Amino acid sequence: MRKIRVALLHLLPRVGDIPYNQQLIEKAVKLAAAKQADWIITPELAVSGLQFSRKIGTNWIEQQPDTWMNHVRMLVKSLKVNVFVGCPERSEDGKLYNSVFVINRNGDLAGRQRKAATLSDGWCESGTVIEPIDLGGIKAGVMICADAYTKTVASTLLAKRADIIVAPSSWGPGLHGPNGEWEQRSIDTGLPVFVCNRTGEDETVAFWEAESMVLKDGKRLLSHKSRQSAIVTFDWDVEKMNVLSSERQLI
């Protein structure tokens, strides 16, 4: 039986407080690595918070990898884990993107995914390239938050032979909250969906009841919500596509 241990970092970032959020991510990554996690996943825009542009603007966003991302790469290499980091980026031509960076256990930037469904974000462009990222023979497809609204991203990842869909998100309940989209994408593709959501509150959006979860064929195999940062760790049977065991730690 082949299995991987996955850690969902269900974090409480502070909107616009970049140093605080970076330190929180590093702390959580170290704690997850101590639990022998193979994959460690942060929420969407874990570095900045979702509504950062209302508070600190966008001039601070750099091309990636920047100084901090290179620091994280060295940390990841020392811990021998794979990490998905939600962070804004500036392209070489100055365009801004809501991105997830995947750093492998060798500290290499194995890939990135730029969010496609950005109409509600306002500050960023839509990503157009959708490619799974190989992590030790398992292809991880990244579907960022509202990219789950339609089947386009998930179906493209399936067509390109992704094995698992990782969904870093900042999506709380409410008027435009999640309403079965992740479940439907797991039905559409037949692929497991690992949703890493967050808690807390930004400028006008509350995430206190937001859930991180693991789904297969429309069914929730695991779910978590909390009012403080937490690490949700689970063992995943790669062959049978099922959760073997799980544990949670508040931080």
Automatic annotation (TrEMBL):
<dbReference type="InterPro" id="IPR050345">
    <property type="entry name" value="Aliph_Amidase/BUP"/>
</dbReference>
<dbReference type="GO" id="GO:0016811">
    <property type="term" value="F:hydrolase activity, acting on carbon-nitrogen (but not peptide) bonds, in linear amides"/>
</dbReference>
<dbReference type="InterPro" id="IPR003010">
    <property type="entry name" value="C-N_Hydrolase"/>
</dbReference>
<feature type="domain" description="CN hydrolase">
    <location>
        <begin position="4"/>
        <end position="238"/>
    </location>
</feature>
<dbReference type="InterPro" id="IPR036526">
    <property type="entry name" value="C-N_Hydrolase_sf"/>
</dbReference>
<dbReference type="Pfam" id="PF00795">
    <property type="entry name" value="CN_hydrolase"/>
</dbReference>
<keyword id="KW-0378">Hydrolase</keyword>
<protein>
    <submittedName>
        <fullName>Carbon-nitrogen hydrolase family protein</fullName>
    </submittedName>
</protein>
